[in-house]
Design brief:
- By secondary structure, this protein is mainly alpha-helical.
- It has a domain at 19-101 and 142-158: Orthogonal Bundle (Arc Repressor Mutant, subunit A).
- 50% of the residues lie in helices and 5% in strands.
Length: 166
Amino acid sequence: MTGRKSERYVAGMQHVLQISRKIDYALRALIYLATLPESQVSTMQDIAEALDLPREFLAKILKALSARGLVRALRGARGGYQLAKQPRDISFLDAIEAAGGPVQINVCLDHKDRCDVSANCSMYSVWKAGQDKMLEVYRNTTLSELALPAHAKQALVPMRLVRRSS
């Protein structure tokens, strides 16, 4: 394979443990809201423009975050969105699960009976340990940490402006 074919193959590969855009955008929106003063409300348009997110997709995400009690939607002329809880009370895991559902890296971790080889599987303990460590990090990381000026600035950079190294 030449360098070009290899690059195309890598670019087109599916990353099975990669988070979805929905989760990424939800986290970025929550971090953005966490950087605002407590009483400030931000319109969907302001959030979309600040983060360079598609407005329609953001609307669906904010609705899901609101339904899970992470975001408060305020109606009216001065309406918009704000966090429904203190940033220190919203974990990275809360945000991920609100946007994408429960985190599970392999089906056997939730429903061992769904795997035909689970009784003799040498991988189960590895999947379990990996998921447990990952969830611990997500559970123990809060929006207040991510909204610190140094972290928030990096997290909120629009994706299309981030250059990928070769």
